[in-house]
Amino acid sequence: MTILFNRGKKLLIQKRYQRIASTYDKHAMLPQLMGERLLEKLDFIKLKPEVILDLGTGTGALLKPLKQRYPQAKVIGLDISLAMLKQAKQKKRWFAKQPLIAGDMQSLPLQENSVDLIIINCVLSWCEDLSLLFKELKRILKSQGLLLFSTCGPDTLQQLKTAWCQVDDFEHINAFIDMHDIGDMLLQADFSDPVVDMEQVTIYFSSIKQMLKDLHHMGSVNLNAKKTKGLQSTQLLDQLAEHYPKRDNQYPVTVEIIYGLAWGKTISNTASMQDGEVSIPLNRFFKQ
Q1: How far apart are CA 75 and CA 69, in angstroms?
Q2: R_g of the chain, CA atoms, integer Å
Q3: Which long-range CB contacts under 8 A does 219-222 form with residues at least 24 apart?
Q4: 55-96 tens-digit pLDDT
Q5: In the sheet where 100-102 sits, what is the strand order?
Q6: What is the three-class DSSP state of 193?
């Protein structure tokens, strides 16, 4: 049996999103930005999907733009949190005829070769074993299908991590996987022609308290074994602010955003090889 989360961490994540579901959209500036930029990449991709899976749909921010982009497609929203799905259903009444499914990445309730496009925005960080997840995604993706995702890279929240290291010995920031490792895992899962790139975005906050509040309400969960228990005291937050690198009396938060795409079909069926070099027809990928 494939296990991507141990039970304790999965319950922790579910409880957090249960608490923040009703206010999530007010604070989810970063996931919203990542989702918008992710969808922009579809502008240049040649694809006519019949079935789309928005994996980790949350409150359903990507459901409407996906349906508008591909009006003939069946758009499925899947999330582990019932509370987030409830928000999606209330907010997207126009989406009533499209399915919203409660489930997780551990075992997707979808048949093999049944999905043309898988979108995953700001969710992969919760997965403990991406290699196993990619194999599960490859199982449900059609041979001509596309996997498109965004996630956070290892340089995310570096200012906050550095400041915490000067305050105590606990681990406050989760580890994020490098984009080169993600590319290797996609190849190992037998995806074709993976492309992974990144950009850095900096968000500014007026105070440490506001920063931590927004991160909390975006669903940030400390999954480290060596983490502090309980709430941070005012004195502790003052120490954090003292060591935090400020800019014009603002507190910058840098996020490394990784974007990736890969196709379901193997290279041997889509490309030719001469003298050890692989040649892939561009008209397969891009609109003309």
Answers
A1: 11
A2: 20
A3: 219/13, 219/16, 219/17, 219/20, 219/24, 221/12, 221/13, 221/16, 221/126, 221/174, 222/171, 222/172, 222/173, 222/174
A4: 999 999 999 999 999 999 999 999 999 999 999 988 766 556
A5: 100-102, 74-79, 51-55, 115-121, 141-152, 251-263, 192-205
A6: strand
Would you say the pTM of this structure is higher than 0.85? no
Short-list 82, 88, 44, 84, CA closest to 67 = 88
Longest dimension (CA), the chain: 65
Structure tokens at 75: 């758009």
AA identity, residue 112: E
Q: Retrieve residue 198's tokens.
A: 């990144």
C-alpha span between 32 and 26 (Å, rounded): 10
Q: Closest Cα to residue 199, out of 242, 127, 150, 136?
A: 150
Length of the chain: 288
- Closest to 217 (Cα-Cα) out of 12, 1, 29, 3: 29
In whole angstroms, give the CA distance from residue 9 to residue 224.
10
Q: Is the dihedral of CA 81, 84, 90, 94 positive or negative?
A: negative
Q: How many CA atoms, within 13 angstroms, populate the side-chain half-sphere of residue 211?
A: 20
Q: Which domains does the chain have, with CATH numbers?
A: 7-154+175-198+258-284 (3.40.50.150)
87-115 burial by CB neighbour count: b if 16+ within 10 A, else e? bbeeebeebeebebeeebbbebebeeebb
| Whole-number Å distance between alpha carbons of 259 and 152 | 9
pLDDT digits (tens, 9 = 90+) for 14-55: 777 778 788 888 888 889 999 999 999 999 998 999 999 999
Give the separation between CA 218 and CA 202, rounded to whole angstroms.
16
Token digits of residue 38: 């992710």
